Automatic annotation (TrEMBL):
Pfam families recorded: Arabinose_bd, HTH_18
Highest taxon above the source species: Bacteria
Protein name according to UniProt: AraC family transcriptional regulator
Native source species: Pseudomonas triclosanedens
Keywords: DNA-binding, Transcription, Transcription regulation
Amino acid sequence: MRERTIASHFVRAAVQGARRQGLDVTALLRDAGIAPAVLDEPRARIDPDQFSRLIQRLWEALDDEYMGFGAMPSKRGTFAMMCNAIIHCRTLEKALGRGTLFYNLFPSAPRIHLQREGELARLTLDDQHLRDPDHFLVESLLLIWHRLASWLIGQRIRLEQATFTYPAPEHQAEYDLLFPCPRRFAADATSLLLPARYLDMPLLQDERTLKHFLKDSPADLLARPDGGDSLTSQIRRLLGRDCRNWPDLEQVAAQLHISPQTLRRHLREEGANFQDLKDQLRRDLAIYYLGRDELSIQDIADQLGFSEPSAFHRAFKKWTGLTPGAYRNGERQ
C-alpha cells in the first residue's frame, strides 16, 4: 500500500494555510522533495513519503499542527502529549474519550465528540470555526483519529459510514483511499460511524511502542492511503509489483474464487475495470520508483513492462502531465 499515490489536489490544499501566512511554498515543496510543477498540474500525483515530509515541513515552518487552518495554532507536540495522556487507558472507548477531553481543553480547537448509537458509535467533528475552504484539516483530523484508534487496538477498524457537511468535491473518487466505506455529503455533521464493539477492545500499545509511533506520526497516518477491503485493493495486492508477469483477469478471478464474469460485474459496481486498475498501479509504481535513486528511467521503464523508454515517457505524461525526467529532476532542484 505504500505505493498508493496521492493526488496533487491534496498538495495544493495542504499548503494554503502556509501560503496565507506568507511562507515560501515553493521552498517548502522542494524541501519535501516535491516538484513545484505538481501544484499546477491537476493530473500530477506524489508518493506517500513525499506527502509525509511536506506535512512535517509545514508543522515546523508554522509551529502549528493545524497547518494554519485552525482558529488558533496547535503547537507542535500537542498531538504527542495527547497520545501520552491516553496510552495507559484500558479500553479504546476510555482512550478516545480522554483524547477528546484533552483537545476540548483548548477553547479554539475543533470540538470532537464520541457517542454510542446502539451497536454503532459515532465520532463527530465540529468544523464550523475553521479557516479550511478545501476541508483539508477536517479530513486530516478524521483520518488521524481513525488510524490512531486502529493502531491502539492493533487492528484496522472497519468504518460503516463517513459523513461530511459539505457537497461532494470534484476529486471524490480519491476518497476511496481515505474513507473506504459508504460516504454521504451535504450531511448534518462531519463524522465517522464504526461498530461499537471496537470501543470495548483493550489497548495493545504502551509507552515503548508509542515512542516509536510518534517518530513519524501523525504525518505518516495522513500519508498512508487505505484501500480497505475493496475488490480493487484485493486485485492490486494480487497483481503485486512485477508488471512483466502480471496475471490476467481470468487468473485473478481464479485466485479470488469467482468467475471472470462475476469479477467484471463487481468491478463495474465499484466504478472500475481491470485495465484501468493495471494502468493506475503502473502509474503509482512509476511515481514510487522515480522518487528513489536506485533505478534509472530506462530501468524503471523495463521494470514496469514497457518495451522501450519512449513508450514509458508517453504513458507517464498522459498519466500525470509531466515527463519522467521533469518529475524526477523537479524533485531534486
